[in-house]
Amino acid sequence: MIENKNIILIGFMGAGKSHVGRLLADRLSVPFLDIDNEIAEKENMSIDELFRTRGEEEFRKIENRLIKQNESRKSSVIVCGGGAVLDSRNIDSLRKNGLLVYLKAGEEEILERMTGLSDRPLLNVDDRVGEIKRLLCKREPRYQEIADIIIDTSGLSPEEVMKEVMVAIGKSRDKDKE
Ligand code: S3P
Question: What is the reported pTM?
Fold first, then answer.
């Protein structure tokens, strides 16, 4: 891993961060940390339930605490929920030893991937499509601005996205030819 840096995957819900992150950690043989999974495990409830019973503000506090606690982590793949980088304190913590990789997905693709999923509390609203568009429009510039690397995931499988990330971080090796 580049100078022991963490590879941090950021981006909107449905961009494939968790799936790609797992593949990447596997390929690089490094630890994998999914902030949302860690929160769910620690709080002993799903993110959806956490939002419902304790509210978004409380979720953000826990998210912030967990990211802070992992500031000194090294050589890991870390996946953040789509809203984590809206808090600049989280960006500061993640940047301490991490490379921010934005997995960019188009509106259509996100809409398609989110269809039928009910585990994203922010999208459990009447006008789901409108809400996705609104959030994406608001967040996209932020993701673009803070990213060290931007990967366009359009039309790519998680495996292909993982390989693109490998190339971008300079770890591209054609394993299949080894
Ligand atoms: C959120 C994204 C979710 C999760 C929570 C809030 C957001 O994670 O952290 O529901 O604000 O975009 P994913 O991006 O992994 O879906």
Answer: 0.93
